[in-house]
Amino acid sequence: MFYYHVPVLLKESVEGLNVCDGGVYVDATFGCGGHSKKILSELNNEGHLYGFDQDEYSEKNIIYDKKFTFVRGNFRYLIHFMDWYNVKKINGLIVDLGVSSVHFDDYKRGFSFRFVGMLDMRMNQRSGQTASDILNTYSEKQLNNVFRLYGELKNSHFIAYAVVKARRLKKIYTIQDFLNIINPFIIVKTKKKQLSQIFQALRIEVNKELDSLKELLIQAKDLLKLNGRIVVITYHSLEDRLVKTFFKTGNFDGKIDKDFYGNVSSTFKIINRKVIIPCNEEIMKNPRSRSAKLRIAEKI
């Protein structure tokens, strides 16, 4: 069965990749294959594309093309898999960090507060802690950190306290269990935004998304050829801040390295100084693209 997901900023992102027809590329978030199909259409028989995804759904969308190799794995292990395929350098990498419509619209996955279902949220359902595990085992301090850092919630400590108090009486297994606990802390006027932030925080922690992104960027820096491109689509400020800082400085601390003479030592040339966002027409066709931001950098 084919699972469809509208690729975000498709034209802009693939153009940013600056595909050379005989190059080697990586789509680190294969998903339903939208970006991969566009890249493959620009490659000749000498080129090759590796598509990464840790989710079993993505295997149902594998592209049967001799120029394409599907890798069932987390992109944080990029260099490990590239070494397995005897690939030492690549011409470009694209990563779309958005959660696909497939995940949000499947009540069994637990990504959305719109449904009744179990609190899972794992991208890779073969391993790792579920959102339910985290809510039932993390300390109040740990939960506060998750909601404050990843959800950017001002009332994170109240939510953390309420979770710990509630689970003493009844374990938290379902979306409804969790909503019953947090609803008293939600302002009706901004309910959708607040719930999105809370569920985002849990999802990031479940999948270790920011750690994985950091590892990917570090490995991509080493794997890219000279003049190779890296294209990243982010959906919230935490991701975007990491990418922006890394492209600018080559690290996550924001520290600019200089040589003995004071010249700035840079790893990347930033291609788009102004972040690229979807046009109004794309947002109308695909409302979930509204928070997308595209950044492009070239290794120098």
Task: Describe what you observe in this structure.
The structure is a single chain. With 300 residues, the protein is of the alpha/beta class. Helices cover 41% and strands 14% of the residues. It contains 13 helices and seven strands. The chain has a seven-stranded mixed β-sheet with strand order 3-2-1-4-5-7-6, with helices on both faces. Strand 1 (24-27), helix 2 (34-40) and strand 2 (48-53) form a beta-alpha-beta unit. The mean pLDDT is 92.
Major sheet strand order: 3-2-1-4-5-7-6
**Helical percent range?**
40-55%
Tell me the CATH topology of the largest domain: Rossmann fold
Sheet having the most strands: 7 strands, mixed
Which SSEs are present, and which pair or pack?
Elements lengths: L9 H8 L6 E4 L6 H7 L7 E6 L2 H4 L8 E5 L5 H7 L5 E7 L4 H4 L26 H7 L2 H12 L4 H14 L5 H8 L8 H17 L1 H15 E11 L2 H13 L18 E3 L9 H6 L7 E7 L1
Helix pairs in contact: 1-2, 7-8, 7-10, 11-12
Main features:
DNA polymerase, domain 1; alpha/beta; single chain; 2 domains; Rossmann fold; globular; 41% helix; 7-stranded mixed β-sheet; 300 residues
Provide a compact summary of the structure.
It is built from 13 helices and seven strands. Helices cover 41% and strands 14% of the residues.
